[in-house]
Amino acid sequence: MLRRLGAEVVEVRKPQQLDGLEGLVVPGGESTTFTRLMRLYGLDEALLRFTGPVLGTCAGMIVLDRNHLGLVDLEAERNAYGRQVASFEADLELAGDQRPLRGVFIRAPRVREAGPELEVLAEREGEPVLLRQGRFLVASFHPELTEDTRVHELFLETVRGRAAQPPVRGSGPVEGVRGNREVPSADATNGSVNVRA
Ligand code: GLN
To answer: Which of 28, 40, 42, 128 could link 58 by a cystine bridge, Cβ 3.0 to 4.6 Å?
Structure first.
């Protein structure tokens, strides 16, 4: 989806692979597995240091929440719609847009509480399913599984907006200068593991 929108995409599995990136997607998959592996590889610490825009989808939303990395001020309840058989698709209302957004919910989390900083961008039956907190965009569904590119466009707008700003100069000559324009992608393997679960 990001490549189709013109972004350069790389996969991130180790902390040093975050260096020089202008944005990050924490994909869907299995948050318990992510949490364990992120701790093992030190990717949790690296994510806490990462300052670029982040898109978290489904399990990605869970690991960013208050009870995990604590980067987004919301509480997501895992598997809150039930087991795999309770996975579903639904048309969502997207803020400021007449066209409904098709949401694919796969053993999706539900937002149980969201802090005042959170902006709700899409709802399903009055419940927030797409939210923004500054540089963080989180979705309880899988926006990469339809042909609709609007959520990824929103993410890339933030990435490109920040990249367009002049670098912040610190005391060192290269401080604040971003190396390249690569954006890591969702990991297809993680997604499919979950789909089969
Ligand atoms: N059920 C998964 C979890 O708890 C999330 C599902 C998904 O990412 N599609 O992490």
So the answer is: 28
